[in-house]
TrEMBL record, chains A, B:
This is PadR family transcriptional regulator. Residues 7-80 form the Transcription regulator PadR N-terminal domain. Gene3D superfamilies: 6.10.140.190, Winged helix-like DNA-binding domain superfamily/Winged helix DNA-binding domain. InterPro entries: Tscrpt_reg_PadR_C, Tscrpt_reg_PadR_N, WH-like_DNA-bd_sf, WH_DNA-bd_sf. It comes from Celeribacter arenosi. Residues 92-171 form the Transcription regulator PadR C-terminal domain. Pfam families: PadR (PF03551), Vir_act_alpha_C (PF10400).
Length: 181, 181
DNA sequence: ATATAATATAGGATGTGTCCTATATTATGG
DNA sequence: CCATAATATAGGACACATCCTATATTATAT
């Protein structure tokens, strides 16, 4: 998927180890892309096999050697090709909505609990992203503008989820104490 | 994941074949859960192995026999347990935001193209969901209320995406004709 | 004083889902 | 008249990702 290109994108900025990449991703794209450590290493060696990335081994005594990955021109080409390529359809999969869909089997109180938990989670996420967003200075480049935009996207969807859940919660009153699902 | 429970949820309403389930899902939860045909059949036979579902074979001459699946009491219990269980953390993965994040490598026009395509897609989705939403009568049960709520969720997020993309698009003007990424 | 986090890589097992294929007939659309 | 959609199931191959494990030392936190 896009992990491959995410790695290439980060390696454009500077050569990094798998470990560095994991941290860099967690700190920047973590809110819209979670990457497993094992997956990063596997994808990274795949990039090396494809000739898009080279490795410099830096010997270390106490820890495993640092394998510093550097992007090749072919890697940059692959990244640019991907950026301009048509958007692949994303499989949608929302376990929470699946629960909502069959929630009629639950007691109203249990549904309220589900929804308030959802609101709490989304509120926390929005707070976190907003805090990071506040720390950003006014964008002086297109790149910065776009990176901040990804934060705004998370905030917008988080807020949409909160608003939606509150509306559903309010509409639930009509079925309080009712057992006719 | 939740596919297992989605199948159980649908089988509560009436016994169905794998084929029926695929159609039922596409028509109702399709906007927040895409299910592959092969995956449905495999998951379904898994449910049979677990003893949560039984099968009646209806002989047919011209086509493969219909294997009608019926939920067992154990299946209903499993469904209810899942509905009340804590929410598993969902892995986030948004290829479009990954592209946005590294979009600084593209020309401003190319980014505009990405964003307008995104707006078009989201607009289409919102139209489709809104049309379905309009066809719904006023909910007379908790179940109906919640099912309609899943539609509203899709509409809300679609609209949030449209609003966000338009804002980003407007902010892009400042970098028109600039090459300093 | 002791535990755990940080540094750094990588393999095996497992799960979940997609894609493609096979099979066979009838109905519908252009 | 011909193609393809609908009906109905299911297996093989493969991709992508997660979880767990192993290894080894230092720094930090309780």
């Amino acid at each position: 998927m896009s992990l491959k290109f995410a790695l290439l994108g980060f390696l454009v900025e500077q050569p990094m180890t798998g470990y560095d990449l994991r941290k860099a991703m967690e700190a920047s794209v973590g809110h819209f892309w979670t990457a497993d450590q094992a997956q990063i290493y596997r994808t990274l060696s795949g990039l090396v096999d494809e000739g898009l990335v080279t490795v410099d081994v830096v010997e270390q005594e106490t820890r495993p050697n640092r394998r510093v990955h550097r992007i090749c021109p072919a890697g940059e080409d692959a990244l640019d090709a991907w950026l301009a390529s048509p958007l692949e359809p994303v499989p949608v999969r929302e376990p929470f909505l699946m629960r909502t869909f069959f929630g009629g089997r639950l007691k109203v109180e249990a549904i309220e609990h589900l929804l308030t938990a959802r609101i709490d989670e989304a509120t926390q996420l929005v707070s976190l992203l907003s805090a990071i967003r506040q720390q950003q200075s006014t964008p002086t480049s297109l790149s910065m503008h776009l990176r901040i935009a990804t934060l705004d996207n998370g905030i917008a969807h988080g807020q949409a989820e909160i608003d939606w859940a509150k509306t559903v919660l309010n509409g639930l009153g009509a079925w309080h104490g009712t057992d006719l699902t």
